Amino acid sequence: MSDVCRNCGGSGKEKCWNCDGAGGTWREFAGDREWEECPLCWGDGFNSCINCDGTGRV
Questions:
Q1: Contact 5, 49 (CB under 8 A)
Q2: If 18 and its partner were Cys, which of 26, 40, 43, 45 is the partner (CB 3.0–4.6 Å)?
Q3: Mean pLDDT of 36-47
């Protein structure tokens, strides 16, 4: 029997470790501040859970 994943609580997603769930960061380009999307989560702020492979169950 499979149980709900402890890492993601059954959602199958966990907060992106690179952007800390923000989806990106503010960067300075030629004196202007611009939003740069996170290259790991593509601006979503979440990645598939590594504990359950995104299924929500272990």
A1: yes
A2: 40
A3: 93
Cross-strand pairs, 4 = 57
> pLDDT tens for residues 5-34?
998 999 999 999 999 999 999 999 888 999
47 contacts: CB under 8 Å, gap ≥ 6: 13, 14, 15, 16, 17, 40, 41
pTM for the predicted model, two decimal places: 0.67
- What value does the mean pLDDT take over residues 32-37? 93
3-state secondary structure of 2: coil
Q: Decide: 56 and 49 in contact? Cβ < 8 Å.
A: yes
Query: How far is residue 39's CA from residue 54's CA, in Å, rounded to a whole number?
Result: 19
Dist. CA 32–CA 38, nearest whole Å: 18
